[in-house]
Automatic annotation (TrEMBL):
Transmembrane segments: none annotated. Component of the Mediator complex. Component of the Mediator complex, a coactivator involved in the regulated transcription of nearly all RNA polymerase II-dependent genes. Mediator functions as a bridge to convey information from gene-specific regulatory proteins to the basal RNA polymerase II transcription machinery. Mediator is recruited to promoters by direct interactions with regulatory proteins and serves as a scaffold for the assembly of a functional pre-initiation complex with RNA polymerase II and the general transcription factors. One of its GO terms (cellular component) is mediator complex. One of its GO terms (biological process) is regulation of transcription by RNA polymerase II. This is Mediator of RNA polymerase II transcription subunit 11. GO terms for molecular function: transcription coregulator activity. The lineage of its organism: Eukaryota, Viridiplantae, Streptophyta, Embryophyta, Tracheophyta. The keyword Nucleus applies. It is found in: Nucleus. Belongs to the Mediator complex subunit 11 family.
Length: 129
């Protein structure tokens, strides 16, 4: 990622930070209005709630785009997700192979013993005259 892209990305994140502060100010204003002894003004509450929701949507949109662009040029640092998934897949493959080998062994073992027993009984020893 080049320096210019980093600067614009940082600027967008700084704008998000400022918007978060503004969201908290708007929420505080709504809380103040709701606690007003004369009662809340409906128009004030509606406008602030509309602003609040729009700012939250803008924050979400910007953060999603920043995360997506960060993932496009490099994986997250110190993330072992890909390695762990690859290891789990390898482990599953090995377990499957071992189970297949066990099945083959179980299928072959009786035949081997039967063939070995018949070979042993058909050969005569030098003492059998």
């Amino acid at each position: 990622m080049d320096s210019q892209t980093q600067n614009t990305s940082l600027q967008r994140l700084q704008n998000v930070e400022k918007t978060v502060v503004r969201v908290l100010e708007v929420a505080g204003g709504v809380m103040d209005e709701l606690s007003n002894p004369t009662g809340p003004r409906k128009e004030f509450i509606n406008n602030h709630c509309r602003d609040f929701m729009q700012m939250i949507k803008d924050i979400q949109f910007t953060l999603r785009n920043e995360i997506k662009s960060a993932c496009e040029y490099r994986p997250f640092e110190k993330s072992d997700y890909t390695c762990r998934i690859a290891n789990e897949i390898c482990l599953s493959k090995l377990e499957h192979i071992l189970s297949q080998l066990d099945l083959i062994t179980q299928a072959i073992t009786p035949q081997y013993h039967h063939a070995h027993d018949s070979t042993v009984s058909s050969t005569s020893s030098p003492m059998d005259f």
